[in-house]
Design brief:
Length: 505
């Protein structure tokens, strides 16, 4: 006998001005069920989750939310949590200046009298991390963790609230394959605790592995709900985008490579904060017209390498960076832009966006002189230029006047990419460019990577997904523990060999 839903929505409609972000969405999840929610960026998934988590309070939308068979009228996030709902957002909400333990204990610190009991705080955090199989010290500063590790902390913190309903919004976007395996096991274990899980992911093979049912949203409306085991991936995609997508990756063409635009020679670098050596003897190069993929497991030093080349991380202790034939030692973001280098960062929230600024202002940040020739921004010129870029990237936000923080994850990623491209770089560094991006938008980003190379730019792509690296790269370099462990050309792209290099074997 099918259990009654622990949570359900009935004809939820949410408008922003005259635009309906949600249009009569009905959806439910049962105790012990993993119900996946799929859809393109901007389909309404995050808006629906904000309704369920109290971020869009009762009265700001039409329709009804039921929890445990009773009408729920959430005033705020705390009200939603009091009904047993916990959410792990795609965009991280940890406080960098606090330790892992302090982040987990926020709002519920153990106390001894009027003082915080720090040993008890660390012990509680250690138990929480252990239950979630997260191997990170509670006393570690969050600022010293990578995005993937922070994502695991967010998951552990949510479970510490002992929720009846757990919402996971792109929980694996920044995780390695091993970490994803651990996460999926933990999600499956929720069934034994009768916890209902709403699982949002653009990784459809992952969805198929973990979900019991799948609901597809498109253009703010619920299109269909089906059992996961009878819903082929090709059909899920067709319902998501309203059309069939046969090939995610563009057809490979023989690349016409030119001069060497970027070269790294025996580069050693350490963190400016704790002097941890993250890069050890890195040597590589990339030519005009070439796409160089960089792979490896979490902690291999891939993001540190790109950030170091751009000038936002670490100190060089040995070696040399050469840009367009000239040594480049005193690296800063402004100087990198001047020399024709641009970074699209993995951590768009921390390094990539100004959350409370508009779409247009975020797009213009790296190329202001082009729209402010006399020191004052020409709003008409800015919108004309930016509008062409937004159209080119198939930007689907409700309004180009929206603040960056109001956008879906995929549109935020396109915004960071667009800002970089407007600076007209010759060297493009892309760190996890499709993290949290739907299958249709991924194809558009892959086409853009191909176009950039065809124009004679040098493109470097860091990705945790081997199929993605294989699909977009002319050459792949693998890293392990701060070192390069193998270089492979297109004819040598075999997943087992690439993974062996990632493991340092």
């Amino acid at each position: 006998m099918t259990q009654a839903p622990v949570l359900s929505t009935e004809k939820i409609t949410k408008r922003f001005g005259n635009v309906a972000a949600l249009n009569q969405v009905s959806f439910d999840v049962r105790p012990g069920e993993v119900h996946a929610l799929c859809g393109e960026n901007g389909a309404g998934k995050s808006t629906l989750m904000k309704v369920l988590s109290g971020q869009h309070p009762y009265g700001s939308y039409d329709g009804v939310v039921h929890v445990g068979g009773k009408v729920a009228r959430f005033r705020d996030v705390r009200d939603s949590e009091s009904k047993g709902i916990a959410i792990v957002h795609q965009e991280l909400s940890l406080i960098d200046s606090l330790t892992v333990a302090e982040n987990i204990a926020l709002g519920k610190f153990p106390r001894r009298g009027w003082r915080i009991d720090w040993p008890a705080t660390n012990a509680m955090a250690a138990r929480t991390l252990s239950r979630s199989q997260v191997k990170i010290s509670p006393e570690t500063m969050v600022s010293n963790l990578g995005v993937g590790q922070q994502q695991l902390i967010e998951f552990a913190r949510a479970l510490a609230k002992h929720p009846r309903i757990l919402i996971l919004d792109e929980p694996s976007a920044a995780l390695t394959s091993e970490e994803i395996h651990t996460l999926l096991e933990e999600v499956r274990n929720l069934r034994t605790q009768n916890v209902a899980c709403i699982y949002i992911s653009h990784k459809l093979d992952e969805v198929k592995k973990v979900a019991d049912r799948i609901t597809v949203l498109r253009d703010g409306s619920s299109v269909t709900t089906r059992a996961a085991n009878s819903f082929p991936i090709a059909e899920i995609i067709k319902h998501m985008v309203g059309r069939e997508i046969k090939d995610v990756y563009p057809a490979r063409e023989e690349s016409k490579q030119g001069t060497r635009l970027l070269e790294v020679r025996d580069l050693h670098a350490e963190s400016s904060l704790d002097h941890h050596v993250a890069l050890k003897g890195i040597s590589l190069s990339v030519q005009a017209g070439e796409v160089l993929g960089i792979g490896g497991l979490m902690g291999a030093g891939r993001s540190e390498l790109l950030m170091h080349l751009y000038g936002i991380w670490g100190c060089t202790t040995q070696g040399q960076v050469i840009v367009d034939g000239a040594p480049y030692s005193e690296r800063t973001p402004s100087e990198s832009i001047r020399r024709g280098m641009m970074l699209v960062t993995e951590n768009r929230k921390r390094f990539g966006l100004v959350p409370r600024e508009s779409v247009h202002r975020n797009l213009s940040l790296s190329s202001l002189p082009a729209v402010a020739p006399r020191g004052k921004i020409d709003a008409v010129a800015e919108r004309t230029r930016n509008g062409a870029m937004l159209k080119k990237l198939h930007f689907r936000a409700l309004s180009s006047e929206s603040e960056a923080r109001q956008l879906s994850g995929g549109n935020q990623q396109k915004l960071v990419l667009g800002r970089g491209l407007l600076a007209d770089p010759r060297i493009v560094l892309l760190d996890e460019p499709t993290r949290g991006v739907d299958v249709g938008a991924r194809r558009e980003i892959y086409e853009e990577i191909k176009r950039l190379a065809k124009e004679g730019r040098a493109v470097v792509v860091v990705s945790s997904e081997l199929p993605e690296l294989i699909g977009v790269s002319d050459r792949i370099v693998m890293m392990n523990e701060g070192r390069t462990t193998g270089s492979f050309t297109a004819g040598e792209f075999h997943q087992d060999q690439l993974m062996a290099a990632a493991l340092g074997k």
